[in-house]
Amino acid sequence: MLLSVGKGLFLATVMVYLLQVAGLSALTATTAMSVWGAASVAATIPAGMLIDRGKGGWLGAVCSVCTAVLLPATVQVHTTWMLMLVLCVAGACDSAGNVTRRALFASGSGDGVSALAWARTVSNVGFALGGLFSVWLLSVNSQAGYQFSYLLAGGGYLVMAVCFVTTSLGAGARNQADDPEPAAAEATAPQRSDSVRRGITLAAATAILTVHATLLSTIMPLWVTQHTSVPVAVLGWLVMLNTLITVVGQIPVSKHAVTAEGALRCLKRSAVWTSACCVLLGTVSFTSSGWQVGVLVAAVIALTLGELFEAAGEWGLSATLASHGEHGLFQSACAFGESTQSAVGPLLVASMVTAFPTIGWLFLISMIGGGRFLAGFLSPARSPKRALAAAGAE
């Protein structure tokens, strides 16, 4: 919770700090945040590999401490290249820590899907609180205020570092039998190859189906301001509606994803609901002013259902498809897909639907359908692991 509050506060205010306090140009500030996003993408896969090699505990602790130091350092540096370097390393460390936390929840005892759902719910509450605190910080808008707030944000990462040090993660990956049975030894190579293929497929499907985040953060504000007569203040209520449904609905929806088959159904349902949101947003400009608010509310509900089912399906597949010592691989695949969508989604989708409104929305819906198609390759029935297990049972 503390980490989510601090991270939410930082992400909600750092762009304003760069522009108004640090005095950077819009292009330089945008480039700085793009560097954060690119580093986040690049760090996911190496982090997953280290976790599966039994290094998750120290990786999470080191990355958390580094992030705790680097967040307040963004206020201390005074040259552009140094700021870029700080944000690059901070983005990479934050991303690696995120992968480690996900692997910790997914590989723990009990239901990994429920654990990830609870973690997401707590994170959403924390981000909401961070957004509220950002109102005060933005009203102060001073160097000292940002420095104090980012120091507190770093404190949440230090708490997380202590948790990593006191929790074993990935240690069991090395506690395998020294002399495995011949059949198991022969199955190791094809099973690993299958896991890598599934990890790549999951990353690609996640990168497409998490477009709901881009729709909420970028496309909906763009569409409301340029294609409707709805007051801009309505956007705040729409975001609040999304947050409320997400907090209340995430855990119940995740119960449908406790098996690989159920998780796959959730992922496919998310494509349907997100596509419905695209249809509603694409047609809102053709409705009368009196109906536009209602259409936007329906679009947010559809988007949020897509978000809930996508998250549940993603967690369920990453947790249930992972064998012993593979949680780092699958969690890093999900994080890679999410980070890729965050990095390239806003510019790509916004350019597409603004340059060619009708064709752009149709193309976006077809892309979502492509993500749904990719998800079908994650079906457990296609897995050689299941075939090997069945052969061993005969």
Supply the number of structural domains: 2
Structural class: mainly alpha
State the assembly state of the protein chains: single chain
CATH homologous superfamily descriptor of the largest domain: MFS general substrate transporter like domains
Q: Average pLDDT across residues? A: 84
Number of strands: 0
Largest sheet: none
CATH topology of the largest domain: Growth Hormone, Chain: A
Which band does the percent of strand residues land in?
under 5%
Assign the CATH class of the largest domain: Mainly Alpha
Query: Architecture of the largest domain, CATH level 2?
Result: Up-down Bundle
**How many separate helices?**
13
Helical proportion? over 70%
First-to-last CA distance:
48 Å
Radius of gyration: 22 Å
Low-confidence stretches: 170-187, 386-394
Estimate the global geometry from the Cα principal axes. Answer: globular
Q: What is the N-to-C succession of helices and strands?
A: HHHHHHHHHHHHH
Please name the defining characteristics of this protein.
394 residues; mainly alpha; Growth Hormone, Chain: A; 2 domains; 13 helices; globular; disordered C terminus
Layout of secondary structure:
Blueprint: H1 2-21, H2 26-76, H3 80-107, H4 112-140, H5 143-165, H6 182-209, H7 211-227, H8 234-254, H9 260-283, H10 289-320, H11 327-355, H12 357-376, H13 384-393
Helix pairs in contact: 1-2, 1-4, 1-5, 2-3, 2-5, 2-11, 3-4, 3-11, 4-8, 4-10, 6-10, 6-11, 6-12, 7-10, 7-11, 8-10, 9-10, 9-12, 10-11, 11-12
